[in-house]
């Protein structure tokens, strides 16, 4: 209901940010104020436009932490548009700032994002280097959610390299964390990933049990992963 007012405010702030510090402050905070809903609803092109304005404003105000966040957010936007090379440029600039200001939380986030971008480019070995560094930071600052995320990403990278045993090792560690912090969505996804890797390693019965568990959780939380699990179980049933 307030969308037209929000847009009017953003446009005014963008037009005046170079000549008015108040407008610059608005530009620097507009996107953050609506972060979750804007990530869901804003068209990627418009999202990049807003983030570039926020980035300009953060530089004008000398807000280094915000500058790093907007650079990283631009990287995420380009990654979502299937532009990993462009995403990497932004993630690297964001990482430099996070390291300069000793922002460990975002340093880990941008390292992990670099890993994801290299994964998208079909470079799992390079991705593993970044995921390992991100994992070390998550463990250092006791960030359980991201520790689980990077363990799962390491599992995916090793799976892409055709190393199911190593992938299983990381997926199991990530699963333990998902269960500890009651993250049902990732618990279901990791059970499904484990099922696929156990099947690759010749353990079909174990793979079926894990995938059935993944299906049960996905149905419970109404996740789209349910269809993936159903399809895989049907495929294995036909192969019997």
Name the descriptors:
0% strand; 240 residues; single chain; 13 helices; mainly alpha
Describe this structure in words.
With 240 residues, the protein is mostly helical. It has a domain at 143-240: Serine Threonine Protein Phosphatase 5, Tetratricopeptide repeat (Alpha Horseshoe), CATH 1.25.40.10. It is built from 13 helices and no strands. It starts with a helix and ends with a helix.
Which CATH class of the domain at 143-240 is shown? Mainly Alpha
Do you know the CATH topology of the domain at 143-240? Serine Threonine Protein Phosphatase 5, Tetratricopeptide repeat
Number of helices: 13
Uncertain regions: pLDDT < 50 for 5+ in a row?
none
Radius of gyration of CA atoms, rounded to a whole number: 21 Å
Could you tell me the mean pLDDT?
A: 94
Helix and strand element order? HHHHHHHHHHHHH
CA(first)-CA(last) distance: 55 Å
Main pleated-sheet profile? none
- How many E-type strands? 0
Q: Give the overall shape, derived from the CA principal axes.
A: elongated
Which architecture of the domain at 143-240 would the CATH scheme give at its second level? Answer: Alpha Horseshoe
Helix content: over 70%
CATH superfamily descriptor of the domain at 143-240? Tetratricopeptide repeat domain
| Beta-strand content bin | under 5%
Provide the structure class.
Answer: mainly alpha
């Amino acid at each position: 209901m307030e969308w037209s007012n929000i847009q009017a405010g953003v446009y005014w702030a963008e037009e005046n940010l170079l000549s008015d510090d108040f407008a610059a402050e608005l530009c620097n905070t507009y996107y953050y104020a609506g972060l979750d809903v804007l990530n869901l609803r804003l068209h990627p092109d418009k999202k990049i436009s807003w983030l570039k304005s926020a980035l300009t404003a953060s530089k004008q105000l000398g807000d280094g932490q915000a500058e790093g966040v907007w650079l990283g957010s631009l990287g995420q936007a380009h990654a979502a548009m299937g532009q990993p090379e462009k995403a990497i440029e932004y993630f690297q600039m964001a990482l430099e700032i996070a390291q300069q200001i000793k922002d460990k939380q975002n340093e880990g986030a941008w390292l992990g994002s670099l890993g994801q971008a290299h994964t998208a480019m079909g470079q799992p070995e390079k991705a593993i280097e970044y995921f390992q560094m991100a994992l070390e930071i998550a463990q250092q600052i006791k960030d359980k959610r991201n520790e689980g995320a990077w363990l799962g990403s390491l599992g995916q990278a090793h799976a892409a390299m055709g190393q199911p045993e190593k992938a299983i090792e990381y997926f199991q560690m990530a699963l333990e964390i998902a269960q500890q912090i009651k993250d049902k969505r990732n618990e279901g996804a990791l059970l499904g990933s484990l099922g696929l890797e156990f099947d690759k390693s010749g353990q079909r019965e174990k793979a079926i049990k894990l995938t059935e568990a993944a299906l049960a959780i996905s149905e419970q939380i109404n996740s789209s992963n349910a269809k993936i699990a159903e399809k895989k179980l049907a495929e294995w049933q036909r192969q019997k």
